[in-house]
Amino acid sequence: MQTMGNTNSMCGLKRFSNYKKSPIGSFGNNSSQDGIKTIEAVKSCSFSRKADLCIRIITWNMNGKVSYEDLVELVGKERKFDLLVVGLQEAPKTNVDQLLQTASSPTHELLGKAKLQSIQLYLFGPKNSHTLVKELKTERHSVGGCGGLIGRKKGAVAIRINYDDIKMVFISCHLSAHAKKVDQRNTELRHIANSLLPREKRKRDLTVWLGDLNYRIQDASNRPVRSLIQNHLQSVLVSKDQLLQEAERGEIFKGYTEGTLGFKPTYKYNVGSSDYDTSHKIRVPAWTDRILFKIQNTDNIQATLHSYDSIDQVYGSDHKPVKADLCLKWVNN
């Protein structure tokens, strides 16, 4: 039944930072899991047969436009994963869910969806997998936004699911734009977390945040940033990433894990190309689109990240989509 509310054993694990304080609305779970952990994706296999559950997670800011060809590219042809999670921001008012369902068939079917105007979240499972769903609930939380032609809301939607006895929460969000609004984004994350994540942490095994978080590259000008990216030296910019900086300060995402930012910044592109913005705005490129996750108790569940990358072959927006392949395994089944 679906209801609507308003409202680790990691390979290549590397601790990014230690926190000196517990932030308001902390995302953390205990003192032994302080800071964002950055891990290298294990690319030796594509969805291990030894895993109990494999999930493909995708986030994309659509810029108010959709084409079926882009959605087919988004979902991909290889469907070895169990669950497919697609979070969208600035989604158009056209029937995106029907197009996604068509693109995902015949291998997968829609299990649940959550919408807050242009912020949307879809969860697909293998055909005839409804019997594995013991609970599914959707929620939403608005933090502003003026709507406009496509309803460019800011906020988040969530799907909470018990699938094959693994309790998971997926949160797709869109935060405030512009480099100077770091504190506002931090505050929005806290409000969303307090609204959508219950304090009874035993109720979830996995928590995933995905979306256009809108954190930018701090104190960087356009020409040197683009030059580094052009020369495949974008890793130099990671230390200036606002999201990682705020995590290091102890403001956000305590205890969460993210893959290495090995791909190029996903914003802002000229629509229809892989060229960065040449409009009058000339935005500085940034990793605005992110996926982070947390295993609540690594004594029970191990997680392996098999990929964390952008999907550069999608051209219909000024953002490139980001995908992560995550496999879970019970330690003591």
Unreliable residue stretches: 1-33
How many helix segments?
A: 5
Order of helices and strands: EEEEHEHEEEEEHEHHEEEE
Strand order of the largest sheet: 1-8-9-10-11-13
Count of extended strands: 15
| CA(first)-CA(last) distance | 26 Å
- Tell me roughly what share of residues is in helical segments: 10-25%
* Class based on secondary structure composition and strand pairing: alpha/beta
Supply Rg: 18 Å
Strand count, sense and closure of the main sheet? 6 strands, mixed
Q: Could you report the average pLDDT, rounded to the nearest whole number? A: 87
**Rough outline:** globular
Q: Beta-sheet strand percentage? A: 25-35%
Verbal overview:
With about 325 residues, the protein is of the alpha/beta class. The protein has five helices and 15 strands. The strands form three sheets. A six-stranded mixed sheet has the order 1-8-9-10-11-13, covered by helices on one side. Strands 6-7-5-4-15-14 form a six-stranded mixed sheet, with helices on one face. β6 and β7 form a beta hairpin. The longest helix has 15 residues. The radius of gyration is 18 Å and the shape is globular.
Task: Provide a quick synopsis of the model.
Helices cover 14% and strands 33% of the residues. With 333 residues, it is α/β, with parallel strands linked by helices.
Which features characterize this protein?
333 residues, alpha/beta, six-stranded mixed beta sheet
Topology, pairings included?
Blueprint: E1 2-6, E2 13-15, E3 37-39, E4 53-61, H1 68-75, E5 83-89, H2 96-104, E6 108-116, E7 119-126, E8 133-144, E9 154-163, E10 166-174, H3 182-196, E11 206-212, H4 222-230, H5 242-248, E12 257-259, E13 289-295, E14 301-310, E15 322-330
Parallel strand pairs: 1-8, 3-12, 4-5, 10-11
Antiparallel strand pairs: 2-3, 4-15, 5-7, 6-7, 8-9, 9-10, 11-13, 14-15
Helix pairs in contact: 1-2
